[in-house]
Amino acid sequence: LQGWLAIPGERFRLAAALGFRSRDIARHLERPMLREVLPGAFLVIFLLCLTSFAVALALGGGPRATTIELAIYQAFRLDFDLGKAALLALVQVVLGGVVALIALRVALPAGFGAGLDRSVARWDADGRGAKVLDTALITAATLFLILPILSIAVDGLGRVASLPLIVWTSALRSIGVALTSIVITFALALPIAAFAVHRRSRLVEGLGTLTIVASPLVIGTGLFIVINPIADPFALALPVTALVNATMSLPFALRALIPALGQVEADYGRLADSLAMTGRARLRRLWLPRLTRPLGFTAGLTGALSLGDLGVIALFASPDSPTLPLQIFRLMTAYRMEDAAGASLVLLALSLGVFWLFDQGGRVNADA
Predict the structure, then answer these.
(1) How far apart are CA 364 and CA 367, in angstroms?
(2) Within 10 Å of residue 356's Cβ, how many Cβ atoms?
(3) Which residues lie closer than 8 Å to 54 by C-beta, 6 or more apart?
(4) Three-state secondary structure along the chain?
(5) Handedness of CA 89, 94, 98, 104 (dihedral sign)
(6) C-alpha distance from residue 254 to each of 187, 195, 280 (Å)
(7) Full-prediction pTM beyond 0.85?
(8) Over the stretch 199-217, which tens digit does the pLDDT of each residue have?
(9) How buried is residue 160: exposed, middle or buried, by Cβ count under 10 Å (0-12/13-18/19+)?
(10) From the candidate CATH numbers 1.10.3720.10, 3.30.450.20, 1.10.287.110, 2.70.98.70, the one assigned to the domain spanning 2-137+161-361
């Protein structure tokens, strides 16, 4: 979606003036954009599947449904075989690294140039065939997402008002962790994106993307071993969780920020250099106004992912200080399914609310 939004509206106006049809727009505008963004999107989806943990854990994860992530968890928590866990983590990193290198080599810049941030008018979407196809695809995706949510709503809606106090305190704890993760993500992503753009280094982008390959459970285990001799790991559960969540969100932030920042520098970088605009002035007057959309999207996505995380906190949290996802898992293991459904509705509302709030805030266009 960010790729389509990144195509300047003036390109579509020019296409209309030239009498382009849908296939012409796909060839000259959409395919170059997809050639730039699809490899990164494929990489993120692949790595998310590779590091899948919560669903497999919640459903039981038998021998035929064990992901690498769940095998690492079982090796640590059940067998306490750190050698096996490390070997599985290495396999995961190598596999993800190979796919990341392939994706980065395939991606090519679209090179659309600058625009005036005008809204995009797609006259070619008025045809009946396009509307029928769009409606069918959107309906299928909506049903896939909405049916599980409806089942949760039916079981849990009546339990929301009577949820135990620990669910609400866990929700507040999760919100605090999510907001902290957003701040840390920006503090990490902006300097890395700036370095990658100025150095034109695909390697930096690749290294940033590889952070998602490192299992949160492996990182949490390593941090537990490091912290335990000098401090109480359980007392640092929330800061460590926020830090790891921010690190796991870094690939999404870089995929959104690096292309956008590269375009800003290509369009206005020389002008900013001629005005001696560097440091904070460049950040405040050039980058932030032109990056509001990807920054808002990144903040919303980071917050939503952090709210739903069930990785590091499973290792660090004490019984009295769980986050909301961990509390939901505890309710499920105690067979309090109606309470778990009600708490899941709260988590869903918080995740959607955080994403909508930041994403809408980022849709403010920069001053021309």
Answers:
(1) 9
(2) 12
(3) 308, 310, 311, 325
(4) CHHHHHCCHHHHHHHHHCCCCHHHHHHHHHHHHHHHHHHHHHHHHHHHHHCCCHHHHHCCCCHHHCCHHHHHHHHHHCCCCHHHHHHHHHHHHHHHHHHHHHHHHHCCCCCCCCCCCCCCCCHHHHCHHHHHHHHHHHHHHHHHHHHHHHHHHHHHHHHHHHCCHHHHHHHHHHHHHHHHHHHHHHHHHHHHHHHHHHHCCHHHHHHHHHHHCCCHHHHHHHHHHHHCCCCCHHHHHHHHHHHHHHHHHHHHHHHHHHHHHHHHHHHHHHHHHHCCCCHHHHHHHHHHHHCHHHHHHHHHHHHHHHHCCCCCHHHHCCCCCCCHHHHHHHHHHCCCHHHHHHHHHHHHHHHHHHHHHHHHHCCCCCCC
(5) positive
(6) 12, 11, 20
(7) no
(8) 766 666 666 656 666 767 7
(9) middle
(10) 1.10.3720.10
The two three-digit tokens of residue 199, written as one number:
């150095």
Please say whether the beta carbons of 89 and 72 come within 8 A: yes
Torsion of CA 210, 215, 219, 225, to 10 degrees: -140
Rounded CA separation 308/323 (Å): 9
Residue 111 tokens read as 């090179």
Residue 261 in tokens = 């920042």
113: left (phi over 0), alpha (psi -120 to 50) or beta: left
Closest CA to 215 of 72, 12, 58: 72
Q: Which residues contact 353 (CB under 8 A, 6 or more apart)?
A: none
pLDDT tens track for 330-354: 898 888 888 999 999 999 999 999 9
Residue ranges of the domains in the chain? 2-137+161-361
List of residues 6+ apart from 276 with CB closer than 8 A: none
What's the token pair of residue 29? Answer: 């505008």
Q: Does the pLDDT of residue 69 top 60, yes or no?
A: yes
Phi, psi of 42 (to 5 degrees): -60, -40
